[in-house]
Amino acid sequence: MSQNRLLQGIDWVVLTLGMIIVIFGIMNVYSVNPDLGVKQVIWFGLGMVFVLGLVIISSNNRNFFEINSPFIYLISCLLLVGVLFFGKEINGAKAWYRFGPLSLQPAEFAKIGTALLIANMINHSNANLNNVSFLGKLVLVLLIPITLIMLQPDLGSVIIFCSFSIALYREGLNPWIILAPIVGLLIFLISIVQIPFYVLLFFGFIILVIALLILSFNYSKDVEDAAYGVLIGLSIYFVLLIIICYFVAHLSEELRESFGHLFPMRSLFFSEPIFFNTVLFGLIGAVISILPVVVMKIVYQKETATSPFKLQSGLAANVMNFSIVCSIVLLLFTSIVSFISPIIFEKLPKHQKERVMVLYEGEAKYRDTSGYNLLYAKTAIGSGEMFGKGYNQGTIKKGRFVPEQQTDYIFTAVGEEWGFVGSVFIVIVYALFVARLYHLAEQQQNRFARFYGYCVGSILFFHFFINIAMVMGLFPTVGIPLPFFSYGGSSLWGFTILIGIFLIINYKSKQSLI
């Protein structure tokens, strides 16, 4: 085989952008701690050796990773089980194996094994993401590593597993299934600081406005039927909310004394103004929701039997009924989340509660505890101004004011020493890097390669986005490293192998076309 042909299929764009990120990352780790910067070079070198080993062992089998995905997944899960018994506890989480000076975090490799196995399952001819049985198998594959990681506990790694939803959506997963956990998280974060009934009223009116806008500017009959179904579901939702509100407001004093302690943050046993507002706006919401449906029924009954808008159409009825069921289930799900959110929040450890409350009350109130990192992180980034203080010239960095600056808070060194310009540059490079991975994924010949490619891009995107948002105070501190920037052998090896496998798959795919 000629040298030119051997080089064909190598994606030089990904390699170039990746090396820019790696070199810039090592420079910043070295600036924070020169000894760790040298070790980071060693970790990356070993990661490249691992990838080279994967190139060699997979050279004779184009489908090597697909065939061996169950084995890789099993090994990653066994490592997660083992760390619960033999792992070393660091910062309250038993998530690392310790071998002398070397620490290994199996959660980083569990992402790779899970992505490969699900890609294998999706590539089968009978795979159907709308099939309940098949979807249940996928959920089980995801829940096993997620549960084991939660037992450590490591909330940050669990959040990263949500990135698979992007790849699953690309392969045909119903967006309602993806929307449910996102809405649930938003409802949880809001309900811990607001009266649950007010949160649910607000959520209901948001959906009501969206449904009415769709009816006003839509010309598709199927979408129109779906919107009417949502409106019927909303009317039922508002009525149920009023009934629950009435029941709670008229509980006896004995029940209040028995169960009131379950709601220490925002008690459901509230004053008359809350009861009055809930009933009033609930009735308004129910009337506004059902009114267009009633008008539709009266108008449509006057249509002829051949009218395309006839209400009794079988297809229209199916679409409407499905929308009613979906909207009611989603709304009841959010109601349950809203009511139990204060209970769950109160059961969290103090430092985790403070990390969430920092989002609402600011880091200054918790400057001596959970807000300390964020306070100095913002100070460091802001002090860099437009062009930064210069490489290795960060005064806040040298003062060691930001704990864990070489790991989760490495972006503070970028902001302080490289300024706004340097920060924007690295954000653009990351965006191009992820976009290129998505582009390569879309070009793959089979679903296995495509799904895995989307997983790679999504995992990197979640890591990057959440880490930057965390450092800037837009997301709670959950311990998510910045890819190829944060110091650590496990994360660096994990990201290197994650991308290396995809580039090997892409290379074999391109070679098969030559």
Question: Keywords for this structure?
Answer:
mainly alpha, three-stranded antiparallel β-sheet, 514 residues, 3% strand, 21 helices
Summarize the helix and strand pattern as letters. Answer: HHHHHEEEHHHHHHHHHHHHHHHH
Number of domains: 3
Q: Tell me about the biggest sheet?
A: 3 strands, antiparallel
**Class by helix and strand content?**
mainly alpha
Q: Write down the Rg.
A: 27 Å
Report the sheet-strand fraction: under 5%
Strand order of the largest sheet: 1-2-3
Give the topology.
Elements (H helix, E strand, L loop, with lengths): L2 H5 L4 H21 L1 H24 L6 H4 L1 H18 L1 E3 L2 E7 L2 E3 L2 H16 L9 H19 L4 H6 L3 H7 L4 H17 L4 H22 L3 H29 L3 H7 L12 H30 L12 H34 L2 H12 L10 H12 L11 H4 L12 H32 L4 H25 L17 H25 L1
Antiparallel strand pairs: 1-2, 2-3
Helix pairs in contact: 2-3, 2-19, 3-21, 5-6, 5-7, 6-7, 6-20, 9-20, 10-15, 11-12, 11-14, 11-15, 12-14, 12-15, 17-19, 19-20, 20-21
Account of the protein in words:
The chain is mainly α and 514 residues long. The protein folds into 3 domains: 1-60 and 363-489, no CATH class; 63-172; 183-347, no CATH class. Helix content is 72%, strand content 3%. The protein has 21 helices and 3 strands. A 3-stranded antiparallel sheet has the order 1-2-3, covered by helices on one side. A hairpin with a 2-residue loop joins strand 1 (88-90) and strand 2. Helix 5 packs antiparallel against helix 6 and helix 17 (372-383) packs across helix 19. The protein starts with a helix and ends with a helix. Residues 263-269 and 304-316 have low confidence and may be disordered.
